[in-house]
Amino acid sequence: MNWRPAVAGPWVAAAIATVLLVVTMPRDDPAEAGDFLDGRQLRLMAPAAPGGGWDQTAREMQSALRDVAGRTEVYNVAGAGGTIGLSQFARYEGDPTQVMVMGLIMVGAIESNDSPVSLEQTTPLVRLTTDYEVLVVPADSPLQTVDDLVTRMRDDLGAVSFAGGSAGGVEQILAGLIADAIGADPGGVNYVAHSGGGEALSTLLSGRATAGVSGVSELEGQIRAGTVRPLAVSSADRLPALPDVPTLRESGVDVELANWRGVVAPARLDPAEEQALEDLMMRMTQTDAWRETLQRRGWGDAYLAGPEFDTFLKTERDTVHDVLVKMGLA
């Protein structure tokens, strides 16, 4: 199965077309970044437990926003692939001091959890980054290659368990796509869901899972420390952060998948406040701190804003729904 990431293939959005408004398209009565807050503090929700990709993104944003918005607060609301946080966030209608990190995992969780709250009850601001997945095993695992894992899956699919993020998220989708690519039933994958990357890692290291799946940025430190051993990455080509780790395709499994992360604000914002928040996010991405974050974390710069991001989200919702139905998850 030839599965393409959000930045290259059927999940691709229009090329990044957002023009830097402060340079070429000045607005009537433009506001300086952060001025619309009028002394109020910006709060960033990470709708997951500490340690995962959303938490990392929120805390890196906090650092990069320091020079353009002053002090910001990060808080975590974990559970159900971000849908618990989303339900809480939906209560902040019209409040421009609240923003929430989200992404592909939340799109899937809304479908798989039959969430009563959807992204329609937010104001999409920007897509920020992409991040590929890495398939790992404990350092002392007898599985040395993807081929070893595939052999075990073909022998007894249910006996091979995968630890990853929330149900219906990118990690479970990837596990299902691997099963599909090797001729196994995606619906039969034994997947152990968690609310955050730290919990999934604990399950893997305790021996309660055969393999783990997570973003490269979340597991790179454990890989370098020798706690876990990488088998493959989900990118089209080898990644600079893990140059010695083969791709799934190199390993004979025809799957490619990328995660993405973005930011939304509450629904029913004043249009001027929505534009001011978009401008603030854009200015954040231009800071040295954010550029250093992308390089250090190995995240791809996938900035997309305005109507293009709205269109991208609608396409993602339709695509994810179709995939999860085929996997028996929606």
What do these coordinates show?
Strands 1, 2, 3, 4, 5, 6, 7, 8, 9 and 10 form a 10-stranded mixed sheet that branches. The chain folds into 2 domains: 21-131 and 259-326, Bordetella uptake gene, domain 1 (D-Maltodextrin-Binding Protein, domain 2, 3-Layer(aba) Sandwich); 132-233, Periplasmic binding protein-like II (D-Maltodextrin-Binding Protein, domain 2, 3-Layer(aba) Sandwich), CATH 3.40.190. Helices cover 38% and strands 20% of the residues. The relative contact order is 0.21. It is an alpha/beta fold. It has 11 helices and 10 strands. Helix 6 (170-181) links the parallel strand 5 and strand 6. Residues 1-31 have low confidence and may be disordered. The protein has helices at 21-24, 53-69, 83-89, 104-112, 146-155, 170-181, 197-205, 216-225, 271-285, 288-297, 306-326; strands at residues 42-46, 72-76, 98-103, 122-138, 161-164, 190-193, 211-215, 228-233, 258-266, 300-305. It is globular and about 60 Å long.
